Amino acid sequence: MEKDNTYLFGIHSVYEALNSDRQIEKVFFRDGIDNPQIRELLSIVRSKGVVYQFVPVEKLNSITNGRHQGVIAIMSKIDYTPIEKMVEDALSTSKFPFIVLLDGVSDVRNLGAIARSAECAGVSGIILPAKGGANINADAVKTSSGALLRVPVAKVTNLRMAVYYLSQCGFKIFVADEKSDKNIYDVDFKRPIAVIMGSEERGVSESVAVLAEEKIKIPQLGKIGSLNVSVAAAIIMYEAVRQKYA
Q1: How far apart are CA 96 and CA 124, in angstroms?
Q2: What is the pLDDT of residues 35-50, one digit of tens each?
Q3: Three-class SS string for the chain?
Q4: Which option is the CATH number for 83-245: 3.40.50.300, 3.40.1280.10, 3.40.1190.20, 3.40.50.2300?
Q5: In this model, does residue 210 exceed pLDDT 90?
């Protein structure tokens, strides 16, 4: 999957990228590597909140045949938006801004489909966790039909802190939960809102879900009991669109 991304390799190249404005998705270090330059590099990676991983040398060799010196940086396919700017722009450009947070949505095709619906529905932004979510790679961008290049996307090290921040900025926080007693057609979306969507397997993590002001569900008449997360997200987005034009 990483081959679909732009990458840099070698200590000096990765060091320069980290100290520039270039956006880095992840840094791979060779297992067991330890020298002063690597320790300095690792310190910078941690201070910037960049995701990193120690991997066997075979993993690095599979990404590049170049002299990687035990370190490879995978560059982001998009330019991430700081959450502060996302919120500021959302509140200044829309009377009823809508932000989507994805907790544990790891399938890139689901991410791409959500982004495509979000762009069509005029969603103000998508917030992803730095760890535990889908990477924005070529498959995600393709599935989104380019929407990931148009919708503001923020990547945060702590999803709970992002929820706190949105709440402080006046957003009402909802969490999608099929066990909720309240369905989306009984909710007032005509205000700044943020909706947290979780993976189909585990849903939204409890530590994040407890921060929501309200749990909402999509009413279902069949017996399967759950919708694909990208479909569920689109239904909720378009209920908000419907209310705006009602």
Answers
A1: 9
A2: 999 999 999 999 988 8
A3: CHHHCCEEECHHHHHHHHCCCCCEEEEEEECCCCCHHHHHHHHHHHHCCCEEEEECHHHHHHHCCCCCCCEEEEECCCCCCCHHHHHHHHHHHCCCCEEEEEECCCCHHHHHHHHHHHHHCCCCEEEEECCCCCCCCHHHHHHCCCHHHCCCEEEECCHHHHHHHHHHCCCEEEEECCCCCCEHHHCCCCCCEEEEEEECCCECCHHHHCCCCEEEECCCCCCCCCCCHHHHHHHHHHHHHHHHHC
A4: 3.40.1280.10
A5: yes
What is the domain partition of the chain in residue ranges?
2-75, 83-245
| Amino acid identity at 211 | L
Cβ(157)–Cβ(130) below 8 Å: yes
For residues 136 and 134, give the distance between their C-alpha atoms in angstroms, rounded to a whole number: 6
Q: Is the pLDDT of residue 2 over 80?
A: no
**pTM > 0.90: yes or no:** no
Please state, in angstroms and rounded to a whole number, the distance separating the CA atoms of residues 103 and 200.
Answer: 10
By C-alpha distance, which of 86, 89, 91 is closest to 101? 86
Q: Could you read off the pLDDT of 147-168 as tens digits, one per residue?
A: 998 999 999 989 999 999 999 9
2-75 carries CATH number 3.30.1330.30 = yes
Q: For a pLDDT cut of 90, what percent of the chain falls above it?
A: 68
